[in-house]
Amino acid sequence: MPSTPYLVLPEVSSERRLFIPFGFEQPSTLCSNLVKLAPNATLFHFGILSSTMHNAWMRAVAGRLESRYRYSAAIVYNNYPWPFCDEKGPSAMDGKVQTAIETAAQAVLDARAQFATSSLADLYDPLTMPPALLKAHQKLDAAVDKAYEACGGKKTYRNDAERVAFLFDLYQRQTSLLPVGKAAGKAKPSGSGAGRSRKAASA
């Protein structure tokens, strides 16, 4: 078990939820083999993973347990194209953009804390999700979408399909062996872990 606070990523989550409810736990909490752990995760990582952008990707590529989403490290997490443009790495991200994501991520945690007697299952049920929590997630989405704009993303998206189409294009640019701008056509992704070293967290 980690010796510092860590992020918990449940392996199975209801298909009814708009967001998989990730969360931080203390080292005193022992986890079973039904979750993934991200020992070095920060508010930035929590914010990206809790966004509509990441959840759209998850819904497109994750496996299923019956009809529920099955979150995996190998397929969902390691292949996810984080908002770092091409080979430039984290230094290419505007510090203000990253700070905005961290601030919005903390706001999501603060909104959850307002309902301390409610379980995450209740908080993330579409029928009972508190307006304050939904609003916090919407602000987080705006901050995350802003980060992806620098990588060619749109200011707004009509649906998950548009988000996933952009993410697959970004994935190809991040993994292709060809120079940026020549990745279209017959180029194939070179691996499933591109950009992995850019993430402090590892599921």
The pLDDT mean sits at 85
Largest sheet: 3 strands, antiparallel
Helix share, percent: 25-40%
What oligomeric state best describes the polypeptide chains here?
single chain
Beta content:
5-15%
Strand order of the largest sheet: 3-1-4
Number of helices, where a helix is a run of at least 4 consecutive DSSP H or I residues: 7
Q: What structural category characterises the helix and strand content?
A: alpha+beta
Notable characteristics:
single chain, 203 residues, alpha+beta, 3-stranded antiparallel β-sheet, 7 helices, 10% strand
Explain what you see.
The protein has one domain. α4 (95-113) runs antiparallel to α6. 39% of the residues lie in helices and 10% in strands. The strands form two sheets. The protein has a three-stranded antiparallel sheet with strand order 3-1-4, with no helix packed on it. The chain has a three-stranded antiparallel sheet with strand order 2-6-5. It has helices at residues 43-49, 52-61, 73-77, 95-113, 120-123, 131-149, 160-175, and strands spanning 6-10, 12-13, 23-25, 35-38, 63-65, 68-70. It is α+β, with helices and mostly antiparallel strands and 203 residues long. The chain has seven helices and six strands; from the N terminus they run ββββααββααααα. A hairpin with a 2-residue loop joins β5 (63-65) and β6 (68-70). It is globular and about 50 Å long. The model is unreliable at 182-200 (pLDDT under 50). The longest helix is centred in the middle third of the chain and has 19 residues, at 95-113.
